[in-house]
Amino acid sequence: MQRRHFLTTTAAAVPFAAFAATRPQPARTTRGGLLTGKVAVIYGAAGAVGSAVSRVFAQEGAHVILSGRTPSTLETLAQQIAAAGGTATPVAVDALDGAAVNEHLDEIVKRTGRIDITFNLIGLGGNQGTSLAAMDVPAFFEPIDTAVRTHFLTATAAARHMASRRSGVILALTAQVARKPYFGSGGFGVACAAIEGLCRQLAADLGPDGIRVVALRSSGSPDAPGVASAIGEHAKAAGISREAFEARIAEKTLLKRMPLLAEVAKAAALVASDRASAITAAVTNVTCGEIAD
């Protein structure tokens, strides 16, 4: 409760300070981009995946709302995006607090008139590298509870705004362990499977309102610090080096490598764009062929 109160207070302290008096315009260097004129809300924007997605979305012409827990990192990212010719607004918000999320999106619509895309990329937590039989209940449920709660809150809050315009895209990111379990994935693999199930149900409920819901499933990006850390935990459990374990994963893919952050971000931009207007209730495979659909 203390954590959420702090974050909600922080969000109120920086109420869309970066918004101009007029509605945001497309990035200067990206007219004709995949997302030109779109307003995209990225939760966990300052994280490794979130920042990669935010940069690509801005490059493709979206005005990106950078949402997260730490104002300073969000502001730094916004400045970097602006320097590259894009537009972004940093706003601190707790994506696990329903009231804060609703207030956050209400203000975005008030300022911009619309929400076209939301993408929840907050960290799920949880330990990896240990057998389920050796885990206690809180450790197992931590990523599952976080995943289901935050995706439900952010998706349904956005949907209520998108429905009035009969248009919108809700994205989520999972990992290959949602479908192909690895020893020691703990609650994380179950959390990823839960996210995909939630996305399918959301797609069924929101489709009549013109809202698409798509998950992207990655095999983990080696240039993401969190993935590198998880690989290290699995490597330790397997009794091999981190490099050897990463090579073991890469060998299982058809392309013999893992997807980079920029590749996942570019795939997300395509899925979020009008060029993918017939795609919903789907899991987009960005595993470099670790999973063959």
CATH topology: Rossmann fold
> Per DSSP, what share of the residues sits in E-state strands of 2 or more residues?
5-15%
Strand order of the largest sheet: 3-2-1-4-5-6-7
User: Can you name the CATH architecture?
Assistant: 3-Layer(aba) Sandwich
Largest sheet: 7 strands, parallel
Question: Low-confidence parts, pLDDT < 50 over ≥5 residues?
Answer: 1-15, 17-30
End-to-end separation in angstroms reads 42 Å
Question: Helical residue percent?
Answer: 40-55%
Oligomer: single chain
Descriptive overview:
- With 293 residues, this protein is α/β, with parallel strands linked by helices.
- The chain has a single domain (2-219, 261-286), classed as NAD(P)-binding Rossmann-like Domain (Rossmann fold, 3-Layer(aba) Sandwich), CATH 3.40.50.
- The chain contains nine helices and seven strands.
- It has helices spanning 2-13, 48-59, 71-83, 98-112, 137-165, 186-206, 225-238, 242-251, 261-272; strands at residues 39-43, 63-68, 87-92, 117-120, 168-175, 211-218, 282-286.
- Helix 4 (98-112) runs parallel beside helix 5 (137-165) and helix 5 packs parallel to helix 6 (186-206).
- It is globular.
- It starts with a helix and ends in a 7-residue tail after the last strand.
- Mean pLDDT is 88; it is low at 1-15 and 17-30.
Helices and strands in order, then pairings?
Blueprint: H1 2-13, E1 39-43, H2 48-59, E2 63-68, H3 71-83, E3 87-92, H4 98-112, E4 117-120, H5 137-165, E5 168-175, H6 186-206, E6 211-218, H7 225-238, H8 242-251, H9 261-272, E7 282-286
Parallel strand pairs: 1-2, 1-4, 2-3, 4-5, 5-6, 6-7
Helix pairs in contact: 2-9, 4-5, 5-6, 7-8
